[in-house]
Specification:
By secondary structure, the protein is mostly helical. Helices cover 88% and strands 0% of the residues. It contains 2 helices and no strands. The mean pLDDT is 86.
Amino acid sequence: MFGLSSIGMNLKLFALIAIAAIAGAMGIYLRGVNQGKDAIRNKINEKRLKNYEKASSVEKKVDALPDSDLRDLASKWVRNNDDER
């Protein structure tokens, strides 16, 4: 009877160690996933900031143009002057 009891204790100890190892591995994996998500979010935010700065710069340049220059630029952007009307 003493032998069966020690085998049961060893199995319980082994099971606890296995569960702890699996939980630790999952924790490490999930931490890596979260770090990857954070890195992607940071890249997206940097791209958004660059796009915003570029749009703001263009808007300031357009706002500074006189109406006649803006009209000339707009006609070049919208249609080709070589086209028949």
